[in-house]
Structure formats: structure tokens, C-alpha cells
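Field guide to reading this record: the first block holds the primary sequence, the second block holds the structure written as C-alpha cells, and the final block holds curator observations. Each block starts with its own label. This record concerns Segregation and condensation protein A, catalogued under organism Candidatus Fimadaptatus faecigallinarum.

BLOCK 1 — SEQUENCE
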Amino acid sequence: MAYRVSLKEFEGPLDLLLTLIGRAKIDIKDIFVSEITEQYLSYMDGLDELDMDSASEFLAMAATLLEIKSRAMLPRPQPAAEGEETPEEELIRRLEEYRAIKEACTRMKALEETARELLTKLPEEYPLPPQTYELTGLSLEGLAQAFRNVLERVARDEERPGVERRIRRDDFSVAACAYRILKRLRRGPVAFFDLFPPRATRSEVISVFLALLELVRLGRASVYQQQLFSDIVIMPALGGASGPDETDAVGAVTS
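BLOCK 2 — STRUCTURE
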């Protein structure tokens, strides 16, 4: 049970008494510190175990009470300048800070009690196998140059006179192109330029190329060039293109 002051003028917690004094609800001259001290010593004698936190709290409160009592007995100083904190305002501020800290301690103790009932599992490490990118005999610059060649071919087709042009809504995506490449690789290696359908639009060429890069990155396909300026060949990676599933391809590329 927490210590409570029991006086003629007041009964309740000591911090509330200080607050009321600071707000001039109770006259400090009517409060006897010696009586409060005697009550607290009797309270401590009745405890089975000494609570050092409570004792420290009481000492701080009693010291504050003595300070207030001393100020009341001494001549009052000149009125505080504008913006300067008066002794009463300082006391109220300190009491409010104390109360806020006390409430925070109570909440933290409740959280500690709750945490004791929780069991946590330390994270485990699952090392991933190193990513390998299969560009056998081919540099990234060579692959980029091949892509530029395809784009130039598309540009030439678009500029050719007499070619019928139709504006159509694109019905392909990178994931769909990846599925198409995997399906084609089931029949064996395929030349790089054969991946792009005739009269492919610029956006379709870009989607196919991005799909190829993703499949290489994910280890589903490999790119090979036997020698400089020879055809670039796309081959299925070991176990990477067998039994392709559209859902699997879409999930792999978009994840």
C-alpha cells in the first residue's frame, strides 16, 4: 500500500499535497513537516521490507516541502521581472515534471511485466546460393550492341514506304515475353534475333529484351556466343526452362 499523508488539513498522497500547496489551495503555514516525517517513519516501520525507491521519493518530497516552508518564513524578495519564473511557478513546474516521470515509470513497469510473458525467437540466417549470370563467351557490351541492332532494324521497317501501319494496343508484358521465351527454349537453343517476331514494335522489342535479361539473372536461361561477331545463342539453363508454367514465369519475373 502506498504511503498517504493524514493531517487535519489534508489526507492523500504526498505529491498531491505539494501540488495543492504550489497552487495555494493549502497554506504551507498550516503544514507541519515534523508530523509528516513521523507518520512516514511509522509507515516504514510497518513494512516487511524496506523500499528504497519509496524512501528516496519521500526524501525528495520532504526536501521540497522544507524548501517551501523556508521560503514562507523568510522575507519575500522583490517581485520577479516579466518573463522570470516565480518560486510558485517553479514549484508547480517541477511537480508536473515529477508527475510525468512517475507516470512514465509506471507505464514502463507495466510494459516490463507484459514483456516477461512474451517469448521471442532469434532470427536464423539462411544463406542464399550465389547468383550466377551465364554470358558464356559474350560481354555485356556485345549483348547491348545486338539489342541496338534489333532496334535499328525496327526503325528501318517503320520508315520503309508502302508498309501498312496499324495502331494496336500492346497485348504483351515482360512476364508474358518471359513465358514465351521459356516455352521456345523447350525445343532447344534459339538465336537472339529469332526471339523477336517479324514487324515487332519498339515496345515489344524492349519487353522481349528485358524478359531475356530477367531470365538470365534468375538463372532460367544462358547466353552464348562462340566467337566475336558470330550469332548470339540463347540456351536453357540447367533445369531452368524445363516444364515452364505461365504462372511460374510471371511470378519469377515480377517478384
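BLOCK 3 — OBSERVATIONS
The first helix runs from residue 14 to 22.
The radius of gyration is 41 Å.
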